Amino acid sequence: MKQIIDVRVKTRKAEFTACKTEMLVVGRFSDGDAGEIVRALDAKLDGALTHLAKIGDFTGKLKTQAVIYGNGRVGAERVLLLGLGERKKATLDTLRKAAATAANRAVDMKVKQVSLALHRSFTGSLDAEAVGRAMAEGVYLGAYRYDEFVTGKDNGRPTTLAAEIVDPDSSQIKALTPGVTTGATVGQAQCYARTLANRPGNVIDPPALARIAQDLARGFRTVSCTVFDEKRLRQNTMGGILAVGSGSRSEPRLIVLKYTPKSKPAKGLPTVALVGKGITFDSGGISIKPAQDMDQMKLDKSGAIAVLATVRAIAELGLPIQVLGVIPSAENLPSGTSYRPGDIVTTYSGKTVEILNTDAEGRMILCDAIAYAAKQKCGVIVDIATLTGACMVALGTYKAGLMGNDNDLIGRIEKAATDSGESVWHLPSGEEYAEEMKSKIADLKNIGSRWGGACSAAAFLGQFAGDAKWAHLDIAGMDVCAKPTECTALGSTGFGVRLLTTYLMNLVENG
Ligand code: BES
Ligand code: ZN
Ligand code: ZN
Q: Which residue's CA lies nearest to atom 7 of ligand 1?
């Protein structure tokens, strides 16, 4: 798939004041020293930067910015100054967001070339590779726009953005470059996820999602794709996926992506299954949702797409670890053939489930996929799903819910969240919650009590993971951005791609 804006990021050796570019981007903290680049530019620009600070127009406060024009006195056409806030509060995510802000601004200003010197504010305090990676990711995230269905694009939006990280010091360039390469891959994968997730239900239905996965696999020798159609789902008694898909003209699918690295994984590394909820549209089914905001339910496939994009990223990076991407996909619609409240469904695991609400469909397709991953002997299963409105009520739109049955796995995902800037919060899903999901006339029912809906949904899923270490990410609330920010355009956020990729990279690195 083509990028909506074709973004490239590289590194280049150049002096900051002499650097020929359409836009040079420099950071400044609100406290302490202004930094060598600001001083050097200030000297060339007749004290313009000191003046800006003096009249209070730009002091380095977080999320503030100023543009100064070079007028031939420095190499850059323009200098974009970005406020980084207080030095002691700055993290890798501050840098990622600053790079995103720069790319975002460049696209808005129709600038096609942007040169970043932001890393210089962080030299010494953060690892150079991580710095390069965060900047490259930020560039992709900030430049992203979703407008593939807008015809007659005469708004003049650039179709390309050439970004570079510049530094006069070759050893700095050398230290940053591997991270920049990784960050470009991950950032690109997250943008790929956003575009796919943003595509509506009339464009992507389960068979179309399966074709996308097959296309992805064709691009890599290390990735294979198997698709279970309705007949094969039936042969495997995947009753959960079949029930949810029964109301739609589009058939449901189970999509299995297998990544087998070229280089042998280190001894003791488990095969990791990533399981993503792929509801291409969730109307609620017979238990239909209110009309308000129902259009957003095209994003109910976001978990599935995070899995697709993560597989793409790790295949591109050639990560030495076995990964199975398992994507159950269906469209949840009301019709004469829909599953209904009261139905009892036999799932792939053999467990029976009493349906009490057809809108609790995510767990019905995921339970088959998780049981499938467990049967494939995956040591670790991580599922990701826009599962419950309750999770959104609990955590808002800032953090994904994280539940699971293994403290070590939970800790690793929390670490990946910190490293990637995709935030999670650990919630319970133990015995009491599982108790709520017991049915009197089947093994389980598909809804619990009114309270703690995110936790009881997780407790339902946990019962299908067998002996595997299992974690669950509830990304309802994280999948969509209603108000664009520096890092996220309107629409899908592509949440989970950085988190899952980072979890896998850390696993490879630390065992
Ligand atoms: N896809 C929804 C969850 C959702 C809600 C995601 C809002 C993003 C934003 C899910 O299938 C659903 O409808 N869940 C129900 C479960 C309930 C019936 C137990 C919910 O949360 O209301
Ligand atoms: Zn639903
Ligand atoms: Zn749903």
A: 389
Q: What is the Å distance from ligand 1's center to 289 Cα? A: 9
Choose the catalytic residue: 298, 363, 412, 498. Answer: 363
pTM over 0.85: yes
Q: Which residues surround ligand 3, an ion (CB under 5 A)?
A: 279, 282, 300, 362
Report residues whose beta carbon is within 6 angstroms of any ligand 1 atom. 282, 300, 357, 359-362, 386-390, 392, 447, 453, 476
Ligand 2 centre distance from Cα of residue 358 (Å): 7
Test site for ligand 1: of 388, 437, 444, 445, most ligand atoms within 8 A of the Cβ: 388
**Sequential pLDDT tens for the chain (511 residues):** 667 899 999 999 999 999 999 999 999 999 989 999 999 999 999 999 999 999 999 999 999 999 999 999 999 999 999 999 999 999 999 999 999 999 999 999 999 999 999 999 998 889 999 999 999 999 999 999 999 998 876 667 889 999 999 999 999 999 999 999 999 999 999 999 999 999 999 999 999 999 999 999 999 999 999 999 999 999 999 999 999 999 999 999 999 999 999 999 989 999 999 999 999 999 999 999 999 999 999 999 999 999 999 999 999 999 999 999 999 999 999 999 999 999 999 999 999 999 999 999 999 999 999 999 999 999 999 999 999 999 999 999 999 999 999 999 999 999 999 999 999 999 999 999 999 999 999 999 999 999 999 999 999 999 999 999 999 999 999 999 988 888 889 999 999 999 999 999 999 999 9
Cα(104)–Cα(91) distance, rounded to whole angstroms? 20
Contact 362, 387 (CB under 8 A): yes
Helix (H, G, I), strand (E, B) or coil at 121: helix
